[in-house]
Each structure stands twice: as structure tokens, then as C-alpha cells.
Design goal:
alpha+beta; 2 domains; four-stranded antiparallel sheet; 28% helix; 15% strand; rod-shaped
Length: 178
């Protein structure tokens, strides 16, 4: 027969829980009043503490999910409302080159313009290569090869006037007069 496990001690720490008081009702499974690092207090079963099934009041899970969803912190601003402009430019660039349902796909991905694999796979790589947008009047531009792919050495932040100098010649449709 296995020896009984030693009782959990007051002050003992389990991940973010610290045991404050034994609250075991007579004849029942061990329960303890615990305080989470965030300050929340809750009664937790002893076995849940021992095996790590309860590691916090829930605050740890919230933090872990946030870390998994946002590695770089640019998907939303400090106010939590809008992504940063560089992230918007990155997602828009990928969308217009890869998504046939995108309104501008025909003049990008439909013409064979691609995004390099490094940037497709990683926003961080895109940001490291292109840098932050210098100001609100700038947007992403393929330069010097306006017909080239989105890749290091062929992308810059440009003003509207710089982009106008870099655009493809406009072809008018022939007027079909009868």
C-alpha cells in the first residue's frame, strides 16, 4: 500500500497559487483557500494543486492566449482598437497577391506579382526588412521594379507623389463608336 502524500502546507506555492488556509470540510477531499499572484482568492482542491491542474485563478491562461495570438504586439494599438499601419500594409500586400477574392487581386496576384516567402511567413521579417512607416503620408510601393515582386530591395515607403511617378502606363480602352 502506498504511503499517504504529505499534506499541503500553508504558504506553499503552486505555480501562481499560494496556500493561505486549509478549508477541508470533515470527511471530504482536501481543499485550500489560495491567493493567486494577481490577488484573487479562491478555494482549490488539493489534488488539483498537486498535479498542476489548477495553476492560477485564470489570469495565467489569459496571458498565455494573448502571447500566442500576438507575438509582435502590432496587431493592435495601445488603445486596443486598430492594428498599426505597418501590420495593415503587410496583410493588405499578402491579400492582394494571394487572394483571388480580393478586389485588387487582378492587378497584383493575377498579374503574377508575389510576396517573397520570408515575408509571407513572418510579419517580423517584413518589418525588419522594410522598417516602420516614416509618417502617415507614406504607403508601400514596389520600387525600383514596379512590375517586380514584393521582396527585399524592391519595396519602399513612398509618398503619393513618389508612387505616381512609379506607376504603370494607363491603357485606355478603345472607344467603340458605331
Amino acid at each position: 500500500m502506498a504511503a499517504p502524500k504529505p499534506r499541503i502546507q500553508i504558504g506553499e506555492k503552486f505555480t501562481r497559487w499560494t496556500v493561505i488556509e486549509d478549508r477541508t470540510p470533515p470527511g471530504e477531499r482536501r481543499r485550500y483557500l489560495c491567493r493567486c499572484e494577481c490577488g484573487t482568492e479562491k478555494i482549490v482542491d488539493g489534488p488539483s494543486l498537486r498535479i498542476g491542474a489548477s495553476r492560477s485563478c485564470g489570469c495565467l491562461q489569459v496571458e498565455l492566449v494573448a502571447v500566442r495570438r500576438t507575438r509582435h504586439g502590432d496587431t493592435s494599438r495601445d488603445d486596443g482598437k486598430k492594428p498599426v499601419p505597418e501590420y495593415v500594409a503587410w496583410t493588405s500586400m499578402k491579400n492582394r497577391c494571394t487572394n483571388p477574392k480580393c478586389q485588387r487581386y487582378e492587378i497584383y496576384g493575377g498579374r503574377g506579382i508575389k510576396v517573397c516567402d520570408r515575408w509571407t511567413a513572418s510579419y517580423e521579417a517584413f518589418l525588419a526588412d522594410v522598417g516602420r512607416r516614416p509618417g502617415p503620408e507614406y504607403s508601400l510601393d514596389r520600387y525600383p521594379d514596379r512590375d517586380g515582386d514584393y521582396q527585399p530591395g524592391n519595396v519602399r515607403w513612398a509618398t503619393r507623389s513618389e508612387q505616381m511617378l512609379n506607376r504603370r502606363p494607363f491603357k485606355r480602352k478603345a472607344n467603340r463608336a458605331a
